[in-house]
Every structure is written in structure tokens, then in C-alpha cells.
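Risk mitigation, structural track. In case the binding assays with glutamic acid fail to produce interpretable data, a predicted complex structure has been prepared as a fallback.
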Amino acid sequence: MARFSKGRSAATLSILAVASLALSACGGGGTPGDSGSNKFEVAKDVSISGSPTFDKIKSAGKIIIGVKEDQPGLGYKNAASGERSGFDIEIAQWMAASLGYGSDKIEFKPVDSAAREQALANGDVNLYVGTYSITDKRKALVSFVGPYFVTGQGLLVAKDNTTINSEKDLDGKTVCSATGSTPLQNIQQNFPKVKVTSFDKYSQCVDALKNGQVDAVTTDQAILIGYASQDPEKLKVVGEPFTTEKYGIGLPKGDTALCQALTKTLTDGGSTWTKIYDETLGKSGTKVEQPTPDACS
Ligand code: GLU
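Fallback model:
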């Protein structure tokens, strides 16, 4: 995890700010009403008329956000400290703050790839921020704010693997991905000679790769870079991204008022997006621009 903690120089941050970053990353932690523990400015007196989701959040007095917790750099929960970190976690905290909910008023809920649409439809989560690609098929079931990040499908293999250098080398090999994900679907539909294994979570695929049960893990390159950087002695990312994955914030279907409010936050955020990126995924050294969000439909 050194990749994600280096570069945040103590000289540039006061002890207070460091403490507040640690607290805000805890999600459900922090002292109620302690706005000092928030990394993002918490908006006051927010009203969004015509948003059933915002009405629910208001009457609950908290916002429930679906996330991943096994994806270093994006959505990760440190098992020992309980601290959550990553680009998606910070995007979620930023969105919540813009609605008037600081870190002490966020309940993060882990939801796997295959369960996202149902979790939003059931109202188990108010928003979902977790490497969730915007697709037409999903748009029939949920609404999206974004894109807020663009990546593409890639490959993770064992460090000593010399036979898989790109997606062209996968015939006859066993590839693992998460159930209900777009990369799994792409392999099943477009790579008929590839054997497929699937699990609920990508971390289970990574374990299977380390045990030699599968030859490669495939999903978004941004996710795979996180796993490789956690274990660079054993894992490496190979090839170039071979699809385009545009990440959106999932909302209950048809909540256009909330979609518009969050799209405005993303659009008018100034340098907020870049700061979040630089402190999380950007630690790998890659520079990218914030994508322009689509209009809400
Ligand atoms: N972005 C892809 C998807 O939404 C893969 C990552 C994931 O499963 O969250 O299906």
C-alpha cells in the first residue's frame, strides 16, 4: 500500500489535517456533529425538491452508500483498523458532503458487483460508488451520475508468467472475473476459447491466481493496478486496456433531481476531483483529466 500513502508530505499538512483525513476515511466513525473531521466541506440547508432518495436520506438522518472494500486504491477497508480508503470512497464522501452529510453521517455498505442493481432498487443503499460501469443494460434498472472516471478492461497475471502478454494470448487459458461484471460478460461473449471462473469478489480471483488455480484475472485496469501494487513480487498487469469502462455513481432509477444535484457537484467542483485522484489512484504516477459528466436523462 506504499503507493497510496507516499507523497502526502507531513510538511504540507498540519497534524490536525492528518487527523481529519484519518477520521474522514473511517466512514461511519468520527464524532457526531464534528464537522472538523470532514475532508470535504459539508453543505448546509440543502434542499432538493422532487427527489425520493433525498427525502429518504433526510428522514433517516444519514446516507447509505454502497461500496467495494477489497479494491486497493479504489474502495478498500483495512481489516485491522477498519479504515476505508481509495478514490471511490473519497468520491462518495465528496458527494455526501455536497448533500449535507459529513463522514459521521455516512453508512458504507459493501455490495458486490452482481448485487448492485437490486441493492439500489430495494433501497438498501441510497447511492452506489464502486467501479460501476455505465451501460445501457444497467441504465434500464438504475440511473447514473457521471462518468466520473474512465478506465478499461485489463489483465493481471503471475509475475513469472511469460505466456500471457495481452488479451490475444488467452485462448485455452482460465481467466477469473467477478460475477455480474462487464469484463466477465465480455470474455464470455467475445472470447469463446477462454475458460472462465467467476467469484463474487475480485479478491477471490486474486487468491485463485496466486494459488495457481487460474491463469489470469480480468477486470478494469485501475482495479488490477491496485492488486499488483499490493503484491508486486507476485503479480503484474500486462497488455493495454481493451474496452472502455466509464464509472458512474448509481442511483435509484429515475431520481433525476438527485442526479442533477450530484452532476452539478461533479461539474462545479473546481480542483476537488484532481485532489482526490492525486491522493489515491494518481499515486501510481499516471496523470488523467476529470471526464465531463453526461446530462441526466
Ligand atoms: N467496471 C466493471 C463493472 O462495473 C468491472 C468492475 C466491477 O465489477 O465493479 O462491471
